[in-house]
Amino acid sequence: MNDTTVYTPPKVWTWVKPSGGQFAKINRPIAGPTHDKELPVGRHPLQLYSLGTPNGVKVTVMLEELLALGHAGAEYDAWLIRIGEGEQFGSGFVAVNPNSKIPAMMDRSGPTPIRVFESGAILLYLAEKFGAFLPAEISARAECLSWLFWQMGSAPYLGGGFGHFFAYAPTKIEYAIDRYAMEVKRQLDVLDRRLAETEYLAGGDYTIADIATWPWYGGLVKGWAYDAAEFLNVQEYKNVQRWADAIGTRPAVHRGRMVNRTRGDPSEQLHERHDASDFQTKTQDKLAAESEQPSSGGSAPAAPVP
Ligand SMILES: N[C@@H](CCC(=O)N[C@@H](CS)C(=O)NCC(=O)O)C(=O)O
């Protein structure tokens, strides 16, 4: 143990100081909105309010996969919610997700708008609405839902546990890092053994179980998360590597990863998506180049505003 701080919890916990760490600014012990702010609404049936984190990417990959299958009803506007700025606490967002976390979605295709929150619920809703990526046969369906719910229950140990204490906490606490590294390696082994038996998690077909799991565990074994690939020795999970590579080559997965993404290569960042053509014309590199172009209206100075 290298943590020598001794903490004696008080009888009743109170919120007296920020907890420290990367997310201290937005963390608070109460729910509900902090400010009034309506959400924008675009022209498509589905309105997504999200950010390109693993939970957000699950939904944008699903929507791009549905569009690639020809489901025009899956057309969507993806609006950016900057959680670091506290936009998840605006009144409009809280009305769509009382839990104040991305992703959140409104289905405006029918007479009464339907809200859906929690990434697993959104995947299941879309799979049922379009009859895709969820097997109809009862045993394959049970397997798919089992892995979907496995992912929803497991990822908080990876993100909120391992990722938090390994990458974000203000001090490195050996006890916490050991506990969560052990659990994440166990989870990777669960996946590796399953993927030794079948091509995808639910069997031979690519389903919402893979779409939910890939952004978290696929990202981890490909070295995209927490700079932890070497620490967790992710190369040893050969079947997870094979599965992550296969899913990573899907064009819809590539597009889904770009939507609402605010980090990395500007040509891979599409902050908002309102049309399929946005992937060609509205990535951050293109927008930056456009704003540097001299205007075509000549160089005469604008008239002063009275
Ligand atoms: N179980 C939720 C988790 C969603 C979640 O944790 N979202 C994070 C980003 S990945 C978030 O919005 N955090 C903002 C906050 O905690 O205030 C889901 O799967 O949708």
Give a nutshell description of this structure:
With 306 residues, the chain is mainly alpha-helical. It contains 10 helices and 4 strands.
Offer a few descriptive terms:
binds glutathione, 4-stranded mixed β-sheet, globular, 306 residues, mainly alpha
What does this structure look like?
The structure is a single chain. With 306 residues, the protein is mainly alpha-helical. Helix content is 44%, strand content 6%. The chain is built from ten helices and four strands; from the N terminus they run E-H-E-H-E-E-H-H-H-H-H-H-H-H. The chain has a four-stranded mixed β-sheet with strand order 2-1-3-4, covered by helices on one side. Helix 4 packs antiparallel against helix 5 and helix 6 packs across helix 7. The longest helix has 31 residues. It starts with 45 loop residues before the first strand and ends in a 14-residue tail after the last helix. Bound molecules: glutathione (GSH).
